[in-house]
Design goal:
It contains 14 helices and 24 strands. The chain is α/β, with parallel strands linked by helices and 420 residues long. The chain is elongated and about 65 Å long. Bound molecules: uridine-diphosphate-N-acetylglucosamine.
């Protein structure tokens, strides 16, 4: 198994090009199940989760190529509607096949994703919304067995809670449904917005894109003529590199980004004292004299993203003062606390709040990656820790960061991928 070895204490410098967003690429890839013709998608990050999803589509009978961050996916030959446990257990986002398969074929069997390191993560809201559209859903032997004997029908759906993949699943289901759906309390994450824009440009009239209420006119079962897609930049990868600049108090520029997707992060970095300069497709972070503590509450977009909570916690260990980090979305998303503590961080946990006492001297240690974003927090901590840090189980990082060690090396970090 691979691990990362990082020698801390080096200043970073230079530019890093941000990849396409994993969380936008995944729903866009499953949306190809709604297309009549092959779909061309560029700026796809070359990460393990994308490959897992491409494998799943292939298992269903799709044909595809994936080279140089471009995929061509042809789902015209799909002849299976079963997303099996072996793939779904590797990646929860496989649940994004549920809406498209059901709306296209009128039946499907998708393995239940189960719990994961950051909490229970139920999918009850996906299922309830599909039932409102006329689906009959049964749970059998760990599988969601869904049928829509008379096809899915447009419906008025109010999500009890804001859910990103739940919104995406139902948007895709509504795209081929019979009649108009009105979805309320929809997630407004940029990844959801891009999915809507692509479906809208591919022949599904959608009103209210970018707001929390969508009106979607279904195609009555007709497959769509998809436009070419270029995946939006990854705002979480972008934020992680900005934190790398911040924690090492260096000047770095991230390129190929949309700064309007980064507002919540940039305002926190500015509040901590860092300089921020923006152009139309780049952001530069510059050092500050004293890193100030900051309070953070994770919340749905456009609020502060839960996917950046762990990285900011690593950064707060270097602030001159005490920061409060409140995790509002996932009940168990503090797995990185014990690993950061092994590196010398001083963090106290009470319920969903972490109190981070700053100005700690971190030291290198052997640490274990526990989930995708928790792992990147360990990388950030290692960049300033004294001595060598070895981060094990980095398959978590490979799920979502393209060429992490290559990009950090280019910025001047001392980082190597080695085998146990
Ligand atoms: C997506 C992102 C993930 C991010 C999360 C929150 C993808 C592939 N993953 O995950 O990186 O951390 O959004 O921004 O895009 N909930 C329910 N019932 C449901 C669905 C969700 O109670 O049916 C709850 C969850 O437990 C959680 C909250 O709603 O507390 C938000 O979860 P959700 O937005 O669904 O997260 P994901 O879509 O799984």
């Amino acid at each position: 198994m691979d691990y990362l070895e990082i020698k801390g204490g080096k200043k970073l410098k230079g530019e890093v090009v941000i990849s396409g967003a994993k969380n936008a690429a995944l729903p866009l890839l499953t949306s190809t199940l709604l297309s009549k013709t092959p779909v061309h998608i560029s700026n796809i990050p070359d990460v393990a989760d994308v490959k897992t999803l491409l494998q799943l589509l292939q298992n269903l009978g799709a044909k595809q190529t994936f080279e140089n961050n471009k995929a061509i996916v042809d789902t015209s030959g799909v002849n299976s509607t079963c997303a099996n446990y072996d793939i779904v257990r590797k990646m929860r986002a496989s649940i994004l096949t549920l809406g498209p398969l059901l709306t296209r074929f009128g039946h499907c069997e998708v393995s239940l994703p189960g719990g994961c390191a950051i909490g229970q993560r139920p999918i009850d809201l996906h299922l309830k919304a599909l039932e409102q559209m006329g689906a009959v859903i049964d749970i059998r032997q760990g599988y969601i067995v869904a049928t829509a004997p008379k096809a899915l029908k447009g419906a008025n759906i109010l999500f009890d809670k804001i859910t990103v993949t739940g919104s995406e699943n139902i948007i895709m289901a509504a795209a081929l449904a019979h009649g108009t759906s009105v979805l309320s309390n929809v997630a407004k994450e940029p990844e959801v917005v891009q999915l809507c824009e692509i479906l809208n440009a591919s022949g599904v009239p959608i009103k209210g894109i970018g707001t929390d209420e969508l009106e979607i006119e279904g195609s009555c079962g007709k497959l769509l003529n998809f436009v070419d897609i270029s995946v939006i930049p990854d705002r979480i990868e972008a934020g992680t590199y900005l934190c790398a600049g911040a924690i090492t108090n260096s000047t770095i520029t991230i390129k190929n980004v949309l700064s309007e997707h980064l507002k919540a992060l940039l305002s926190k970095l500015a509040a901590m004292g860092f300089g921020i300069e923006k152009t139309s497709d780049s952001v530069t972070i510059t050092p500050c004299g004293t890193i100030l503590p900051v309070d953070i509450e994770t919340i749905e977009y456009p609020g502060f993203p839960t996917d950046m909570q762990a990285q900011f916690m690593a950064l707060c260990t270097q602030a001159e003062g005490t920061s409060l980090i409140d995790e509002r979305l996932f009940e168990n998303r503090f797995m990185h606390v014990s690993e950061l503590s092994r590196m010398g961080a001083d963090i106290k946990l009470t319920s969903h709040t972490a109190t981070v006492y700053g100005a700690t001297k971190l030291t290198g240690a052997d640490v274990m990656a526990t989930d995708l974003r928790a792992s990147s927090a360990l990388v950030l901590a290692a960049l300033v820790a004294q001595g060598k840090t070895r981060i094990h189980r980095i398959y978590h990082l490979d799920r979502g960061y393209e060429n992490l060690e290559g990009k950090l090396s280019l910025l001047g970090a001392d980082i190597k991928r080695l085998s146990e």
